[in-house]
Amino acid sequence: MWQSVINWYANWNDELLNVLREPESAETVTIPWRKKIAKQAANLSPIERDQLYQFCLEYQGAKLWWAIAKLTILFSALGLVLYSFKQKLHWLPAVLVMNLLGWMLVFALVGIWFNYRQISRRHFHFSVSAFLGVLFGFFGFTSLSAVIQGKDIWATIWKDGPIVLVVAGIAGALYVLMIGIVAGWRNQGYETKAAQLALDAEREKSARQESESQLRLLRAQIEPHFLFNTLGAVQQLAEQGAPKAAELTANLIVFLRASMSEMRAEQISLAEEFRLIQAYLEVMKARLGSRLNFELQLPPELASIPVPSMLLLTLAENAIKHGIEPSLRGGDIQIVAEKLGTDLLITVQDSGVGLSDKPNPGIGLRNVRDRLRLQYGTHATLSIAEAEQGGVIAEVTIPLA
């Protein structure tokens, strides 16, 4: 029998916890009285549901039954204390009345604590309910005491009634007063917390919109920056009468047609970014010839990872402009993507002139750093260092999750 009760309680507790997590699941409850409770829980505000969920999670199973046992012992002891002061009152009614009052207070506190918004709006309704509860509880427990003792019910009510009724009346008045005080205090705390959450949400929305605006501005800066540098290379070849000027122009047109959508997107896959880089390096190789060699390494399992568009392309262009072009012999560019723990690591390495001969890095690297900061906060980094064998290593770390 006890095992059945335990299983029944565990099933109901799991059901209630599920409703508090997912309010829409209240519609799946089939037992009528449990469905009513589930709907009441689902109608609570998100803040109230979360508070009740944490309470139910804390007090369940053996911990709940032990708490009930301790409170029952406490109320019974208070009943015996009442009996010691009022010998005219039998000890059993005293114990029963104190348990009645004690558990009324417990349920009142729990009800007020997790349903304070409803109570604050319907104070009169709950006050009347409290009075009727005290009245019916008085008659019920006095009658039960008389039956247990084998006495006449009406005679017992007439004899013990005045004392019990006074105690119950005082408790009822305190109960109603407690409803008003606790519900008002809790409701004020709720309103304060709700206002703070709304303010935080508004601030987060404003910050997100500001970040998105800054990201759009940074993309708008880098697109003409990239295009002007590339078109400048075409102009230089044309002025020199180089035979490859026409080929470079054709390659550039093909590249721009393929890459315009990627330039305008906020994020693209790593595979698309690598294709964009390869197309750009093919254009630059048509101009630099044997002075430029490049290698791209992208593992297939990393191809679908999203990255900010043109971020790595900016680093590749920076390596060409500040590393390969100033070098008489040219150099190599190697771009490698790899997984490093929970991060994505992309390395852009050139064998050009190195950092010592570089002027201020300019808009490119500043743009990359700003975009990483706005997109990922402190979770993404860009580091620039001198390579041991010459040239520069740029490493971008982006969180995968």
UniProtKB/TrEMBL annotation:
Pfam family, one: HATPase_c
GO cellular component term, pick one: membrane
Every Histidine kinase/HSP90-like ATPase domain range: 311-400
Gene3D superfamilies: Histidine kinase-like ATPase, C-terminal domain (3.30.565.10)
Annotated ranges, domain Signal transduction histidine kinase internal region: 214-292
Keywords: Kinase, Membrane, Transferase, Transmembrane, Transmembrane helix
TM stretches of this protein: 64-85, 91-114, 126-148, 163-185
Entry's Gene Ontology molecular function annotations: phosphorelay sensor kinase activity
PANTHER family (UniProt xref): SENSOR HISTIDINE KINASE YPDA, SIGNAL TRANSDUCTION HISTIDINE KINASE INTERNAL REGION DOMAIN-CONTAINING PROTEIN
Protein name listed in UniProt: Histidine kinase
Organism of this sequence: Undibacterium baiyunense
